[in-house]
Amino acid sequence: MSPRTGGARSEWERHADVVIVGAGIAGLTAALRAHARGLKVIVVRKAAHGDTATALAQGGVAVVDGSVPSDSVPRHFGDTVAAGGGLVDGHAATVILTEGAEAIRRLRARGAHFDEGPDGLLRTREGGHSERRIIHAGGDATGAEIQRALNHASRRLTVLDHHNVVAIGVAAGEVTGVSVVDTTGARGLIHASTVVLATGGIGQLYAVTTNPGSATADGIALALRAGATVTDVEFIQFHPTMLYSPTGSGTRPLISEAVRGEGGRLVDIDGRAVTDGDPRGDLAPRDVVARAIATRMRETDAAHVYLDARSINGFAQRFPTIATLCAREGIDPQSDLIPVAPGAHYHCGGVMTDVNGASSIPGLYAVGETARTGLHGANRLASNSLLEAIVVGERVGAAVVSRVGRAISSWVETQWSEPAGSTLPRVVLQRMMSQQAGVVRDETGLSCAANTLADAVASQGVYEDQNLHLTASAIIAAARWRRETRGSHTRRDFPYTDPECARSIPISLRDGMISLDSLEATARV
Hints:
With 525 residues, the protein is an alpha/beta fold. Helix 1 runs parallel beside helix 12 and helix 3 (73-83) packs across helix 4 (90-98).
């Protein structure tokens, strides 16, 4: 149930050193590190434990720890840059990839168990990677194991379940706390000098997504309303191989790249190879594969292509989660082709931060999919997201210690005012974004979407719908500006990459309107 906004004053107040908004891998990692440093931490999450994108993650964690002689951080860096479409921040990538091994050690110390063999941790290779550096848990249940371990490690933290943060307090240019509301509409205030946004992604902007129902772009919308800068929001990664269902909508399971890494092949409805035009084949980066699938679907007038995994011996043992998901659809991967199609999966952009998670507002941090550190650039390399969440989560938890004891300015809670105009139901918004701001875009569709958003407002009173509406407006504005094809942003009317556009576009909210800030391009690799 989505909380409804309203004008009621707060019914309770609390105080903390830091408020963590979200309880997936990024939020709980930051919370545990801060708590270990002696900070008073309050975690706010919209649902009970486990309803996170982390828990759904089938893929693993890409990490270089010296156990593979032919691999190195520079090689991992090169793969990350190759996938990132010219917008990877070199400093952020170096820091995050270098600190990955230590972050995994900490995660294992907190109770996470990864798959092992006679020679140590088992490793696979996924799309865009030049080496077998991906570690997994439970075969294809890595996220579920990480979430389990972090939930257990966090049992002594103060956690508010079924609460939405509806506003970030800012006074004298610094964070003062958050306003929250529960499912009954009761409101509360948490006073804190530091707020960490770890709310996950934006998948519920689209009709079909791998994301859970909680992925309603809350972090980006909260940051924009607080005055923070977001960037790279036009870069939305569509996972190439979501399990297709003729009646499927909403959250759908994905078929991990690891299946292709172990020999699975993509073929169209006529049995022809889908990615034969790329030397990397089915292990090309996600944007390349998703674009190839979308193009072939259009050429063959088909709703999907197929993943042929029949050559993989012991499929059910290697991929137990995927085997179970397929069985529910009446598919046996050992004898049947698996129907797949692209779906909204990961947001490469987000709140603009440094590698410590610090945003443009003192006291406001972001981490995980909510943040944009620069690691992913225009397109995320497979299995780099969990790595980033762990590494930057640790760094955020350490960095917020510096704000302990700061005086908090008084915060006068503002009343919520409903926007005027006709409403835009979520299902209509999702259909519009899927059709006009999906895998392939053009000015005709984007301008139509912009006009629709300008002429309507989100469902009145439903806070999450308002977050989706605001974030959609930012995405459409950035996608219209980027008149080129780069990474996960594909323009049918501008099919080539423009060197003049090799920059990230800062976006802010000014007088209630989305503003694309004009800044000089920063160095990218």
